[in-house]
Amino acid sequence: xxxxxxxxxxxxxxxxxxxxxxxxxxxxxxxxxxxxxxxxxxxxxxxxxxxxxxxxxxxxxxxxxxxxxxxxxxxxxxxxxxxxxxxxxxxxxxxxxxxxxxxxxxxxxxxxxxxxxxxxxxxxxxxxxxxxxxxxxxxxxxxxxxxxxxxxxxxxxxxxxxxxxxxxxxxxxxxxxxxxxxxxxxxxxxxxxxxxxxxxxxxxxxxxxxxxxxxxxxxxxxxxxxxxxxxxx
Length: 233
Fold this sequence. Notes:
Blueprint: H1 11-14, E1 23-26, H2 36-45, E2 50-53, H3 65-69, E3 73-78, H4 85-92, E4 97-100, H5 103-114, E5 119-122, E6 136-139, E7 142-148, E8 152-158, E9 161-163, E10 168-169, H6 178-183, E11 185-192, E12 194-196, E13 215-218
Parallel strand pairs: 1-2, 1-8, 2-3, 3-4, 8-11, 9-12, 11-13
Antiparallel strand pairs: 5-7, 6-7, 9-10
InterPro entries: 3-oxoacid_CoA-transf_A, CoA_trans_fam_I, NagB/RpiA_transferase-like
Organism: Halomonas beimenensis
Pfam families: CoA_trans (PF01144)
C-alpha cells in the first residue's frame, strides 16, 4: 500500500494493528453485506475484550458469530439478537454485555461519528429503558434524549466494487450499514468482490469516497442465506 493505492494483498495486512480492547464497527445487516473474511481474520488473531457496533451478531459459526465462540467480544451495541443461539445464551448468562440500540439510532451514531458530531438528540427511546440515565431536552413540545456518536478504532466493511484509490460501490441491499460504518473508523478496511482501475467507476456511482478508506482487499465470499423458507407444493 503506497500513496493513493489502498490495496493490500493479504488479510493479515488488512487487519494489521488490531489489538485486544479496541472498538470495531462492522457493516452488514443479518448476513447481507457482511465483511466475513475480515471477521475471520479477527477470529484468527485471537484478540479479545472487543467492543463491537453492528446491527446484529451474525449467526452461529459465521460472521460475527465466530467471535462469540472464544468470547472475543466483551460488549456489543446491536439492534437485535437475531438467529444466533450462542449470542442469546451468552447474553442471558451475562457473559457478554449487550446494549440493544434502535436501528435508526445505531445508524446515526455511525453517521454522526464520521461527520465529527459528538452527540445528537433523538425522540426514539424517550420514556423507555433505552432513555434511562440520558439527558433529555424538549423541542417544539416533544421530548428527545441525547445519544453519543461512535468512532471505532477499526471499521470493517464489505463492498461490491472498488478502485485502487479506495472508492467503493455497494450492491443493492448490501449497502445497508456499510457506508455509515466506513466513515466512522480511525482505520477503515474494505473487502470487495472486484478491484477495478481508477476511472472505471463513474463518479456518480460512488457510495464511499476513497478519502474514508485506508485499506482495501479483494476476496471471495460464501454469501449464505440467513433463513431459507421453501413453499410446500
